[in-house]
Amino acid sequence: MRLWVCIALLSTVLCASADRPSIAERVVRAGQFVRDAAGGAYDMFRAYRDMREANYKGADKYFHARGNYDAARRGPGGAWAARVLRWPFLLPHSDARENWQSGVSGRGAEDTRLDQEANAWGRSGGDPNRYRPKGLPSKY
């Protein structure tokens, strides 16, 4: 009788825990998230580097969209990096920096708003070529 009770309890415990991922699976998923986040940060850095290298007037929105698009395609970690990291310094969002960009830098609030629109477009999976200016070398 005790044997059957033990088997029944063991079966119940195994069935109840079968739906939850094991610790090893959670660690693997966490590692994938971190890898995707690092890759997404690199994607955004690469787009920023390309923007600086191209030095092409009117192309900044394209590079904003491309960096966010590439990062978000990596998976949840890349999408997180695209949401959290901001241009151009790839640091967490700063109200002081946003105010400086829109007020002191001469770029204006409208330009900052358009940059954020391009970021959101890229993060949502929209084609970055929507913002690609004519004449931008095909290298980019």
From TrEMBL:
Residues 1-18 form the signal peptide. The keyword Signal applies. Major acute phase reactant. Apolipoprotein of the HDL complex. GO terms for cellular component: high-density lipoprotein particle. It holds the Pfam family SAA. It comes from Ploceus nigricollis. PANTHER family: SERUM AMYLOID A, SERUM AMYLOID A PROTEIN. This is Serum amyloid A protein.
